[in-house]
Design goal:
elongated; Molybdopterin biosynthesis moeA protein, domain 3; Molybdenum Cofactor Biosythetic Enzyme, Chain A; 6-stranded mixed beta sheet; alpha/beta; 7 helices
């Protein structure tokens, strides 16, 4: 039995970023850029109005007041998408819409709420002064042509998607998503569409694992259920080289029908098969060909915790992410918690802000077969080896399941 730290070190050793591919702008969301993105234009591409109103010369309206408006001749209307054909001279204004190019001669825009239309639109009564440059977006004020707007290694978020579109990067180069094969094992498993008969249970683990793979930025491929025979298990595990990672659930304990470890040793190589943790001490890791293999326990929570600790960081590293781990921070226990001292515990909990700190309560029963408390949890409490009693008020560490990697 090895420690959690040693297990994590082994699973991450030798993991490299996957290859790259060009994808559409929307498909890039959540992906890691593999090259810098350079703007092909200035953004904004021209001086334009930030408001609906009137483009004016600021000096012409310096004395404008509600009770003493300055009246200007309206010489043109310029909607967004059009270009002005006339310059603004002394005593003149151009009716302008948001985003429309500024006419030559004008240096400010008076918002329409501070104006009054007169003479059927031929005259604008200006009711307030503006400063030169007010309500004007300058050419290149956001981005200059040739400027690096997104750097290799950055994760594409919603604002970055908009930047990609703004600078004409139609197909950014990103790291590939890991393709993850998922295999559930056990004669007791039936499909979710079936009502379980005597001794049977629905196959929930394939679906929770697929969801975890998606949330981690991977591409899940559910291969089906391997029955408790070497032949059935080998038929599915032999497909590992088709994928970047293979994850199985169940069949890794010491029971008469737990055949995964034996099949793994025949098809590939096993690195370790037990970690000093709870839930889920039976954690098998190895390789089939060049494909990393993870044999997670069969109990639903053990499966999900094992994925969180060992598989998720591997997928993140493959996909090009620098931040591999969820945020951790101290929390204060709201009640006593007891455990066996022989191994590290990861307990499902609900963490809430309390003044300047955080308080944590167990989110329900901690049986590794119970998914409800995992559903209610937003954190895992990390209780170290060598201790068995944690009194209310004790400060322990938690892993935040509701925060993405790199979140402060």
């Amino acid at each position: 039995m090895i420690t959690v730290e040693e297990a994590r070190e082994r699973v991450l050793a030798g993991i490299e970023r996957l290859g790259t591919e060009r994808v559409g702008i929307i498909e890039a969301l959540g992906r890691v850029l593999a090259e810098d993105v350079v703007s092909d234009i200035d953004v904004a591409p021209f001086d334009n109005s930030a408001m609906d109103g009137y483009a004016v010369r600021a000096e012409d309206v310096a004395a404008a007041r509600e009770d003493a408006p300055v009246r200007l001749a309206v010489v043109e209307h310029v909607p967004a998408g059009s270009f002005p054909t006339r310059a603004v001279g002394r005593g003149e204004a151009v009716r302008i819409m948001t985003g429309a190019p500024m006419p030559e001669g004008a240096d400010a825009v008076v918002m329409v709420e501070r104006t009054r239309e007169e003479d059927g639109g031929a005259t604008a009564a200006i009711l307030a002064p503006v400063r030169a440059g007010e309500n004007v977006r300058r050419k290149g004020e956001d981005v200059r042509a040739g400027e690096v707007v997104l750097s290799a290694g950055e994760v594409v978020g919603p604002a970055a998607v908009g930047l990609l579109a703004s600078v004409g990067c139609e197909r950014p180069l990103v790291y590939r998503r890991p393709r993850v094969a998922i295999v559930a094992t056990g004669d007791e498993l039936v499909d979710v569409s079936e009502k379980p008969g005597p001794g049977k249970i629905r196959n929930s683990n394939s679906y929770s694992l697929a969801a975890q793979v998606l949330a981690a930025g991977g591409e899940p491929h559910v291969l089906g259920v391997a029955r408790d025979t070497a032949a059935s298990t080998e038929a599915l595990l032999s497909r590992a080289p088709e994928f970047d990672v293979m994850v199985t659930t169940g069949g890794v304990s010491m029971g008469d029908y737990d055949v995964v470890k034996g099949v793994l040793e025949r098809l590939g190589e096993m690195d370790f098969w037990k970690v000093a943790m709870r839930p889920g001490a039976p954690q098998t890791h190895g390789r089939i060909g060049s494909t990393p293999f993870f044999g997670l326990p069969g109990n639903p929570t053990s499966t999900m915790v094992g994925f969180e600790l060992f598989v998720r960081p591997v997928l993140r590293k493959m996909a090009g992410h620098a931040a591999l781990d969820r945020p951790r921070h101290p929390v204060t226990l709201a009640h006593d918690v007891k455990k066996k001292p022989d191994r590290r515990y990861f307990l499902r909990a609900r963490v809430e802000r309390d003044g300047d700190g955080y308080v944590a309560r167990l989110s329900g029963g901690q049986s590794s077969a119970m998914l409800t408390s995992m559903h209610r949890a937003n954190a895992l409490l990390v209780l170290p080896e060598g201790e068995s009693h944690f009194a209310a008020g004790s400060v322990v560490e938690c892993i935040r399941l509701d925060m993405e990697e790199g979140t402060p």
